[in-house]
Amino acid sequence: MMKKRQVVLRRDNGSGRASTTSSSVVRNVRYGECQKNHAANMGGYTVDGCREFMASGEEGTTAALMCAACSCHRNFHRREVETEVVCEYSPPNSSRR
Fold it and tell me: Is the pTM of this model over 0.70?
């Protein structure tokens, strides 16, 4: 299974404000079943049944874009993106008395 993870950090340290808000967006990208139509040149529709993208090579190489199971390019596989937003907030006077 080919998974990618992209992390974007945003920090808001407002000038003149005593509170700090921090949020991060985490995106997990997964490539599912192959959707390449192998019978398109004959006017039909058939897929090879490959259920999940598996990279043929190491990340960063051209082989990483080819599926080891069906030999198709990664773009033929259904792309699924999961997005998670995590927010943290610190109140201005967080000390207890």
Answer: no
Supply the pLDDT for residue 27.
85
Contact 36, 27 (CB under 8 A): no
Task: Please say whether the beta carbons of 79 and 29 come within 8 A.
Answer: yes
d(CA 34, CA 67): 9
In this model, does residue 91 exceed pLDDT 60?
yes
Q: Which two tokens stand for residue 85?
A: 């937003």
Enumerate the β-bridge partners of residue 4.
29
Break the chain into its structural domains and give their ranges. 25-87
Contact status, residue 72 vs residue 66, Cβ threshold 8 Å: yes
User: 66, 73 in Cβ contact below 8 A?
Assistant: yes
